[in-house]
Amino acid sequence: MQSKNKKIKIIVAMSGGVDSSVAAALVKQAGLARGRSTAEGFDAVGIFMKFWKDGKSSDNRCCSVESEKLARLVAKKVGIPFYVINVEKEFKQKVVDYFLKEYKKGNTPNPCVVCNKEIKFGFLVKKALSLGADFVATGHYVRTSLANHSRSAINFFPSAGGPLCLFGQVDQGTAKSSLPRLFMGKDEIKDQSYFLWQLSKEQIKHVLFPVGGYNKPEVRKLAKKFDLPTAETPESQEVCFVQNTTNEFLNKYLKAKPGKIVNTKGEKVGQHNGLWFYTIGQRRGLEIPQGPYYVVGKDFKNNILIVSKDQKDLLKKELIAYNVNWTVPQKLPINVEVKIRYKSDFAKAKIFADGKNKVKIIFQKNQRAITPGQSAVFYKGKELLGGGVIE
């Protein structure tokens, strides 16, 4: 175990938004608290990552010129060094190319899941450790177990529950466990655990979530308390590298491939521009008379889009998920709650093994618009167990 008097090095991922700004301020405050107690505070550094952007005239929402300016101002206000690293090449290869490849296959991908795995908690954690850092702190609304960080020196994160406790962390009876574990953030509306199911145990061991124990209004109040220039920064929930609509972006990189639109009886009711421009459950943009119609399937072999007027055709009771990752090892079969998209409700289900890194999920009740390419994420109470990609 690390000596409690040894200075801990923490790299804070800063985006110019209010969440990562407050995370940086809390890390600094915790370092000062630890310094008063042990004479050794935290060695904190702010890092801003520049991602790929679509052409010279566009900008990436996550790393715009304005975002970098705000992040730099926050670092100065908080009193930590600030550096910019360029990950355009890695982002393009790992995130954007994946995004386009999946759409071309007919899936509806979730680029934020891949970005978290490969860039924010992949590239950055690896880089941080190579530079001698102990942890990477981010502004995600997620919590970790007490067992994640055994170093006693990390016990100085302030929280709503007390001035000197493991901030952003929860004790779910895991104190005796050595396994790193992830839990939903306190703010269930803003919770971002859904996007972290692909993280490895090694990555989880080296991350801190300073805002995980707060809800969004509390984070805004903290930003004002710390007098941060990002206190009123608006939310951004779109895909960061897509400037306008997803279809406009896809149209730039994937050529049109017109084909028939048919109903569930096989009758032609219209024409599509390319199967990648449509997603399961979609209603708008079909331009079919006497609707509304809903996209219920894709026949890639024959380049046919299948639609229905009956929403019952969107209901299914099971799915297959591949590329399964367990943040906590499980013995199957297992009863869990599953989210099939970020904003969907939890659905009770049973998971069965279905081959290497694949599972079959059978729900208690039918689910609407189960969409290939999206993530099916598994929970037990507030704890994130893992997830997979819907086949």
Overview of this structure, please?
The chain has 391 residues and is an alpha/beta fold. Helices cover 24% and strands 27% of the residues. It contains seven helices and 18 strands. The longest helix is centred in the first third of the chain and has 21 residues, at 18-38.
Topology at a glance:
Elements (H helix, E strand, L loop, with lengths): L7 E6 L4 H21 L3 E9 L14 H14 L3 E5 L1 H17 L6 H20 L4 E3 L4 E4 L23 E2 L11 E3 L16 H5 L1 E2 L7 H10 L20 H8 L5 E5 L4 E5 L21 E6 L4 E5 L6 E12 L7 E6 L7 E7 L5 E10 L6 E6 L2 E8 L1
Parallel strand pairs: 1-2, 1-4, 2-3, 4-8, 5-6, 9-12
Antiparallel strand pairs: 5-7, 7-18, 9-10, 11-12, 13-16, 13-18, 14-15, 14-17, 15-16, 17-18
Helix pairs in contact: 1-2, 1-6, 3-4
